Every structure is written in C-alpha cells, then in structure tokens.
Amino acid sequence: MYLGVDIGGTSIKSAILDGDGLIARRTIPTEANQGVASVLTKLRTLVRTYFEEYPQIKAVGVGVPGVVDTMGNVLVSPNLPGWKNIPLLKFLRNYCDAPIAVENDANAAALAEMIEGAGRDCHSFIYVTLGTGVGGAIIYRGELFRGESSGAGEIGHTIIDYNCRNKSQFKFQQGTLEAFVGKNSILSIAKQEASKDASSKLNANENFDVVDIYNYALQGDPSSEKVLRKVGEMLGYGLASAMNLLDISTVIVGGGVANAGEMIFESARKVARSHLLPPLAEHFQLRTARHLSDTGVRGASLLGKTLIEQEF
Known about the structure:
single chain, five-stranded mixed beta sheet, alpha/beta
C-alpha cells in the first residue's frame, strides 16, 4: 500500500494505491487563504489518520503545485499563498516513519501517465494539467526533466500576450498561458461573454463551472462555444511554443478542466499544428490523459512506490 496526497489550490485529494486500484479516497478543502500553518495542520492530521487506519502503508508521495527542489522543499507555489521555501518533506517526516517523496504535482501526474496512462508508448512527451492553474511536466527519454532549479515544465508561465496586465499576485504571472486557460480565468472569460448576450444559457446559472460551459456549448449556446474556442486557441499557442522549444511532438493533457476537453482540444490542435515546425507538425499528437480526476493522487502514490523500488 502506498499513500498519495495531491495538494491543489482548491482541494487536497488523497488515496491509497493498493495493487492497481485506489482505495480510501478522501477530499478536503485546501482553504489556502487561511495560511501555510493551516494547510500543514490539515496534512499532518490527514497523514496521521491514514497511518492509524492503514499501518501497512509502505511509503508516502505528495504532489504540490509550484517549484519543489530535490530535498522536498517548496520553493514557491503561486496557487498557495505564503508558500515560499517551505520544508514540506522535513515537516512530514515528523509524523510518519515511512519513506516520503515530495514532488511538483504535474511531475507526479506525468509519472502516472508515463507508467500506466496515455504516455506508456511514448519515450518523450509534454504533460499539461488544466485545473485551478496550469501545470506542466516534461518526460524526456523516459525520465522527468527537471531543469536547473527543479522548475522545468511550467508551461502555464509561457508568455502568450506580453501586453496583458491581468491582476495577479506576481508579475511573472502577467500575460501567461495560465492567465487565459486556468479554471478561474475560463470562468472570468465566460462571465464576460455572458454579459454580452442576455440569451446565453450561462446567465441562467450564477454558479456555473467549466463542465457547465461545455454542456451549454453542446446544447448549441453560442457564448459557451466562443469561450471554449478561445480557451483552445490560447492553449494551442502555448503548446506550440513549448513543443517548438523542446522538439517534442506529443502532448498529454489532464486535470479537471480536461473533462470539458474535445471542444477545447479541437481548437488547440488546429492552432498548435499551424504554428509548429514542419517535422513536429507531421507527428503532432494531443492526447487526453487516461486519469482525469485522480491523476495527481495516483501519481503521488506512484512517487512513493518508485521511492521504495529505487531503495531496494
């Protein structure tokens, strides 16, 4: 048994990998705005509870949004306010004796897709996760490529509109792919479109989510279709930039927003292919991740399993 914990900007998901399946799933709100200490307390309680119920857990893997170094320190996490130079691995070691691995959440998800998902037959691919933010990872010749500061693969910070001055906590987020394709950004774009069309189905639901936009688009709502096309186009520009830079022709897209996939992906494929260098365009593939709702927690648990396998 291997415990996986996926810390997101909205929720903390956890489960135990037992054989090939996930059991004992739990989801709790992150409530990151309450501060670092509050989130750490939740993690401590969560880990303790699992070990009390399942003392046979062999290892723990934790996925975190942001830059995580090889020592398990969270250097920065834009989606978790106040998370800067947080020694997460050291903190968790105080509450369990099992081996622990802490990794960027997108890296963990990419690992899951490489081992048992849509990337099993790919020696190299770019993984993109669409959720509260936009994360990414690079698998090159069967291994994670981390870069100099362990932050490689952050496709969400690809600049696609240098004129954009969107409101953000950090200047490095302005004009980035995440500013257009992250969940909150998609909802903001949808609200703008809804305000222009009183007949839009979006106006009938004050608390619509990305999946609702997708469903309204399937029902023929023009505003919803426009939102998804625009999001897809922006995603396509970001993908093309990353693929041209890295010379990798396959992209795997996961995360919760990918549940509203095909209409977004259709536009993304069209834009990306038209902006790719010819050798890449010839072999270009955009695949949907095998695990859309549990990739992060599955990847996190596989981090722990891999850690054990490497040690023994």
